[in-house]
Amino acid sequence: MGVDLVVAASVLGVALVIGMATLGATIGQGIAVSRATEVIGKNPNAKKEVMSGLFLGLLMIVALMLFALAIAVILLWMNPFV
Amino acid sequence: MGVDLVVAASVLGVALVIGMATLGATIGQGIAVSRATEVIGKNPNAKKEVMSGLFLGLLMIVALMLFALAIAVILLWMNPFV
Amino acid sequence: MGVDLVVAASVLGVALVIGMATLGATIGQGIAVSRATEVIGKNPNAKKEVMSGLFLGLLMIVALMLFALAIAVILLWMNPFV
Amino acid sequence: MGVDLVVAASVLGVALVIGMATLGATIGQGIAVSRATEVIGKNPNAKKEVMSGLFLGLLMIVALMLFALAIAVILLWMNPFV
Amino acid sequence: MGVDLVVAASVLGVALVIGMATLGATIGQGIAVSRATEVIGKNPNAKKEVMSGLFLGLLMIVALMLFALAIAVILLWMNPFV
C-alpha cells in the first residue's frame, strides 16, 4: 500500500494546486476586467490604452499560474518519491 | 486496494479541480458583469464598446478554465499512475 | 472493497463539483444583479439596456456551470474507472 | 461493507451539494437585496422598476439551485451505483 | 507504512502551499491591475508612470511567491524527514 498512498496524495495534490490557482486567477481577472469595462464606459476614447494595460495585467496573472502548472507537472510526471 | 486508492483520489481530484475552477470563474464573471451593467446604465451610448471589452475579458476567464479542464482530462483518461 | 471505494469517491465528487459550482454561480449572479438593480433605480430609462446586458452576463455564468455538469455526468454515467 | 460505503458517500454528498448551493444562493440573494433596498431608499419612485428587476434576478439564482437539487435527487433515488 | 505517510503528507503539502500562494497572488494582482487600468482611463497621459509603478508592485507579489516555492522545493527534494 505504501507507494499507492503517495501516488494518491500526488493526484489529489495536482487537483488542489490547479483548482486553487484557477480559483484565484479567475477572480483576479474578473476584478481587473470589471474596472476596465467601467473606465471604457466613462471614457471610450481611452479604450485602446486601457485594453493594452489590461492585457498586460491579465498575462501577468496567467504567468503566475505557471508556478502551479509546474508543480502539477512535477507531481504527475517527475515525482521524486514515486 | 492499492490502485483503487489512486483511482479514488483521481476521481475526487477531478471533482475538486473543476469545482474550484467553476467557483472562481463564476464569481469572477459576476464581478465583471456587475461593473459592466453599471456603466451601461450610466452611459447607454457606450454599450457597444463596453460589451466588446467585457466579452474579451469573459473569454480570458473561460480560457483559464481550460487549465483545469486539461488536468481533469489527464486525471480521467491519461492518468500516468493507473 | 476496491471498486466500491472508487464509486464512493465518484459520488462524493459529483456532489462537490456541483456544490462548488452552484456556490460560485449564485454568488456571482447575486453580485451582477445587485449592481443592475442599483443602476435601474438611478436611471430607470436605461432599464431595457441594463437588463439585456445583465441577462447576457447571467447566461455566460450559467454556461460555465455546464463544465461542472459535464464532469458530474461523466462521473455518474460514463466513469472510465468503474 | 462495500455498498454501505457507497451509500454513506451518497448521503454525505447530498448534504454537501445542497449545503454549498444554499450557502451561495443565500449570500448571493443577500447581496442583491441589499443593493436594491439601498436604491429604493434613495429613489422611492423607482420602486416598481427596481423590484421587478430584483425578482427576475432572484428567480435566476433560485433556478441555479435546481442543478443542485437535481443532483441530490439523483444521488438519493436514482443512484446508478446502488 | 511509516515513511510513506510522511511522504504522502509532504506531497499534499506542496500542492496546498503553492495552490494557496497562487490563489492569493493572482487575486492581489487582479486588484492592483484593476486600479491601474482605472487611472490610465482617467489620465491616459500618465500611462507610462502608472505602468512602471504597477510592474514594480506585481514583481513584489511574484517575489512573495518565492517563499512558497522555497517550501515546495524543500519538501520535494530536501525533505529532512525522508
From TrEMBL, chains A, B, C, D, E:
Highest taxon of source: Bacteria
UniProt xrefs under InterPro entries: ATP_synth_F0_csu, ATP_synth_F0_csu_sf, ATPase_proteolipid_c-like_dom, F/V-ATP_Csub_sf
Spans through the membrane: 6-33, 54-78
GO cellular component: plasma membrane; proton-transporting ATP synthase complex; proton-transporting two-sector ATPase complex, proton-transporting domain
Main location: membrane
Pfam families: ATP-synt_C
An annotated Gene Ontology molecular function: lipid binding
UniProt subcellular location: Cell membrane; Membrane
Membrane topology: Multi-pass membrane protein
Family: Belongs to the ATPase C chain family.
Functional summary from the UniProt entry: Key component of the F(0) channel; it plays a direct role in translocation across the membrane. A homomeric c-ring of between 10-14 subunits forms the central stalk rotor element with the F(1) delta and epsilon subunits. F(1)F(0) ATP synthase produces ATP from ADP in the presence of a proton or sodium gradient. F-type ATPases consist of two structural domains, F(1) containing the extramembraneous catalytic core and F(0) containing the membrane proton channel, linked together by a central stalk and a peripheral stalk. During catalysis, ATP synthesis in the catalytic domain of F(1) is coupled via a rotary mechanism of the central stalk subunits to proton translocation.
Protein name: ATP synthase subunit c
